[in-house]
């Protein structure tokens, strides 16, 4: 008798991105319960961020994100979900929107167009 084992995925999500990503570099604090990561954003869009980190969180973790975006006087705080992680990086999708977040992404995009 032959037994076949299939790996069961506990989560699924679409790899398709809805928003254009822009390279960026600014501080971010990612919190999940008592766990805190002070790292750096490497790209940003209206839908999420890529984070350079030595300690990526597991996919599907619900996190609070505090962005210290350029041109913003106060940090922007939104809820997010880790969608992927690999050694040295993780991707976080924003679970809520913030008008200041959209403005910050727009300013980053316009700064890149000037270069």
Short summary of the structure?
The protein is mainly beta and 115 residues long. 14% of the residues lie in helices and 43% in strands. The mean pLDDT is 83.
Describe the protein's architecture and organization.
- The chain has 115 residues and is mostly beta strands.
- It has one domain: Beta Barrel (Thrombin, subunit H).
- It is built from one helix and six strands, in the order ββββββα.
- Strands 1-2-3-6-5-4 form a six-stranded antiparallel barrel.
- The longest helix is centred in the C-terminal third of the chain and has 16 residues.
- The chain is globular.
Task: Give the helices and strands, then pairings.
Layout: E1 22-32, E2 35-44, E3 48-52, E4 62-67, E5 76-86, E6 89-94, H1 99-114
Antiparallel strand pairs: 1-2, 1-4, 2-3, 3-6, 4-5, 5-6
């Amino acid at each position: 008798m032959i037994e076949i084992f299939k790996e069961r995925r506990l989560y699924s999500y679409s790899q398709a991105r809805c928003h254009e990503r822009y390279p960026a570099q600014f501080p971010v604090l990612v919190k999940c319960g008592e766990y805190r990561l002070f790292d750096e954003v490497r790209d940003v869009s209206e839908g999420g961020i890529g984070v350079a980190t030595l300690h990526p969180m597991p996919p599907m973790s619900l996190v609070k994100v505090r962005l210290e975006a350029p041109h913003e006087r106060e940090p922007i705080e939104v809820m997010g979900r880790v969608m992927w992680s690999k050694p040295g990086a993780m991707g976080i999708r924003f679970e809520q929107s913030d008008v200041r977040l959209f403005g910050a992404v727009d300013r980053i995009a316009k700064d890149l167009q000037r270069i």
